[in-house]
Specification:
By secondary structure, the chain is of the alpha/beta class. The chain has helices at residues 39-52, 69-77, 87-93, 104-117, 129-160, 164-169, 175-183, 187-193, 195-204, 210-222, 231-263, 269-274, 280-290, 300-306, 331-347, 349-360, 365-386, and strands spanning 8-12, 17-23, 29-36, 58-61, 81-84, 122-123, 312-313, 323-324.
């Protein structure tokens, strides 16, 4: 097959099949194929696209991992140039291309054309083993935390059907109340056991502040003497839900240990966690969001833009200076800087001073936290550039 100059190949990734579309320098479609998501078929289409081009083709794909993992690994092995075209961008651009219908072939062509015309797309570097493991573990933790939230909400609803006073008195994000409900879920059962016996039962199960918890539960139990309909089955369900939350807590703890063990193996781990407010979990999310490669970010402004902390202008006519959060940014990275800023306000004098100054300037709480998060991008980028841990500023001393 004759070479056609430079080639841009777009991939609309799927679970069982991908669609690959290749364009030449003039934007003409030179290849459009549905390809099975297996190694042999993918190697064949990579070779076919490479044979069309006078030089190395530029690949573009709408997924960073998951269904695209095998293809990305094969392209990385060939040292291919790969860029990321978000699905949101493809959806927005669909109306600018001929045809109202949506097909995998059309999406693949849009992805290739965007890669051909744009120079601001995010490069996809092959993830190393450590970052890939962290990404999987962080995703698993997110799933488990979501499951835990769902079960806790169901437990609260179930407890209201037994005793609203008891539900209000207990915090089901803590192990003690969960342990209590796993054994005693109704006001009658708690009253019948009594505070002393309930305290002893909780202590046998390693619950902290057992006496305080027992007293709170007994007080709530005495506030309701009416037996609600379906209480017995509700109590059984509540006990099951409480045990389920405790099991999820244990599994989350196990995943946290695995994340911590891998995160600490990264060369930048000590520098990242030296910045107040960033611990192991947020540090791991930072590595996952950035791919662990700060060379991909030419400046702190570049990193801030990727985190959604560099406002984009929205001017129109005579209206100028209007800024808003960009639509395209990494949500995980934004979360890392926002939550670490919140934490640092409580534990870092430098962060607290900056936050208080922004509040004194008239900014609302959320605006002040975002301003602090933006400042922390600059600090962390510089720390990683210089490979130096964070050093708190020394308080000013007065002469004797």
């Amino acid at each position: 097959m004759a070479e056609t100059g430079r080639i841009w190949a777009g991939v609309d990734a799927g679970k069982e099949h991908h669609h690959v579309a290749a364009l030449d320098e003039a934007g003409r479609l030179v290849l459009s194929r549905r390809v099975a998501n297996d190694e042999l078929a993918l190697r064949e289409v990579i070779a076919e696209v490479t044979a069309l081009a006078a030089g190395p083709p530029r690949w573009a794909i709408d997924l960073r991992d998951g269904y695209a993992a095998l293809l990305l690994a094969l392209l990385a092995a060939d040292a291919a140039e790969i860029v990321y075209v978000p699905g949101r961008m493809v959806n927005r651009m669909t109306g600018a291309y001929r045809g109202e219908g949506k097909t995998d072939a059309k999406d693949a062509r849009i992805i290739a054309d965007q890669a051909r015309m744009r120079a601001d797309l995010t490069p996809l570097a092959p993830g190393d083993e450590l970052i890939t493991e962290l990404r999987m573990l962080v995703a698993r933790r997110t799933d488990l935390v979501t499951d835990r939230t769902r079960v806790i909400n169901r437990l609260r609803v179930t407890m209201v059907e037994i005793s609203p006073a008891l539900e209000r008195a207990l915090d089901f994000t803590r192990t003690g109340p969960l342990t209590l409900i796993s054994g005693y879920a109704t006001p009658a059962a708690i009253r019948g056991t009594g505070q002393d016996q309930l305290t002893a039962w909780l202590r046998e199960r390693g619950v902290r502040n057992a006496a305080v918890l027992a007293r709170r539960a007994v007080t709530a139990a005495h506030a309701q003497t009416v037996r609600l309909p379906g209480q017995d089955i509700a109590a059984e369900l509540a006990a099951d839900l409480a045990r389920e939350v405790m099991a999820l807590n244990e599994r989350i703890g196990q995943v946290d240990e695995r994340i911590a063990a891998r995160f600490r193996r990264h060369p930048a781990a000590a520098v990242i966690t030296s910045l107040p407010g960033i611990g192991v979990l947020l540090g791991a999310e930072f590595l996952v969001a950035t791919g662990g490669d700060m060379a991909a970010f030419s400046s702190a402004d570049h990193l801030a833009g990727y985190a959604g902390l560099a406002p984009a202008p929205r001017d129109s006519g005579r209206r100028t200076g209007s800024l808003h959060r960009p639509r395209r940014y990494n949500r995980m990275l934004n979360r890392v800087f926002y939550y670490s800023a919140l934490i640092s306000i409580q534990h870092c004098p430098d962060s607290r001073t900056f936050y208080d100054r922004k509040r004194a300037e008239g900014k609302k709480h959320n605006q002040a936290v975002l301003a602090l998060a933006r400042r922390r991008v600059n600090v962390l980028w510089a720390l990683l550039r210089d490979q130096k841990p964070y050093t708190p500023s020394q308080p000013a001393t007065t002469a004797a």
